[in-house]
Design brief:
By secondary structure, the chain is of the alpha/beta class. It is built from nine helices and nine strands. It has a six-stranded parallel β-sheet with strand order 4-3-2-5-6-7, with helices on both faces. The radius of gyration is 18 Å and the shape is globular. The chain starts with 7 loop residues before the first strand and ends with a strand.
């Protein structure tokens, strides 16, 4: 069986990866990770509200709902509602990250990657390309996700992790400018892969290259990726950097 011929070619120094719908199935996150966190919110807040990360997220929830004295039950109700809406609220993602990190560490959870992703990431990394992650999931969740995969620990392949807290909202160009500055790379040396048109638009507005990933069964598959370059798998993308091509 012959391998697909890459249809898209880029000369960049780094690839920045979205997770849900791009490297991994949204269905896994919604059907496995969301219920796992939902069942543990109350216990986390009751037992560890004094932990700095949990306390900060708790304060952020109260601020967002406009009730500085909201009790644990009210906060949990809000978190559950945000889950139902799939809202990309930073404190929700922070608390999910704490819960998921511990679940991955215990072996309760193992992350999901599409079959074409890990070989591409390894090849790109071996060729000298820098890899970064930018997801609405917290940095803690990203770290756990990449370190607990069926293919082993992939975190050594990744040069940096970005979320809505350390970079900003994913549909705002300023977030991508912030990431570019953090990496030390010019915007035109960065390629962003995502399934969401709004994120791709924001990255391009910041001067980045973009490719929309369209996978059957994903929420944004029917909507398409607007006027961005499009790929169904990572195999369709060829990247050259410092004279190497993969």
């Amino acid at each position: 069986m012959s391998l697909p011929v890459p249809a898209l070619r880029f000369d960049v120094d780094a690839v920045v990866l979205d997770i849900e719908g791009t490297t991994s199935a949204t269905g896994f996150v919604v059907d496995v990770l969301y219920p796992y966190s939902r069942s543990r919110f109350a216990a986390l807040l009751a037992e560890r509200s004094g932990d700095p990360e949990v306390a900060r997220a708790l304060a952020q929830v109260r601020e967002l709902i406009g009730d500085p004295h909201a009790d644990t039950a009210a906060v949990v109700k809000t978190l559950d509602a945000w889950l139902d809406e799939d809202r990309k609220a930073t404190p929700l993602k922070t608390l999910q990250g704490v819960i998921w990190s511990e679940g991955f560490a215990r072996g309760d959870l193992v992350s999901h990657f599409y079959d074409d992703v890990v070989p591409a990431l390894r090849a790109w990394h071996a060729a000298g390309l820098r890899l970064y992650v930018y997801s609405s999931g917290s940095v803690a969740a990203q770290r756990a996700w990449f370190s607990s995969t069926p293919e082993g620990d992939l975190l050594p392949l990744v040069s940096g992790l970005y979320d809505t807290e350390n970079a900003g909202p994913k549909q705002e160009p300023e977030s991508y400018r912030r990431i570019a500055e953090s990496t030390g790379l010019a915007p035109e040396r960065l390629l962003f892969l995502s399934d969401r048109p709004g994120e791709l638009d924001a990255a391009r507005a910041a001067g980045w290259h973009t490719v929309g990933i369209r996978r059957p069964g994903e929420p944004f598959h029917q909507q398409g990726v607007g006027d961005h370059a499009e790929a169904g798998t990572f195999d369709e993308i060829s990247i050259s950097t410092s004279g190497s091509t993969t």
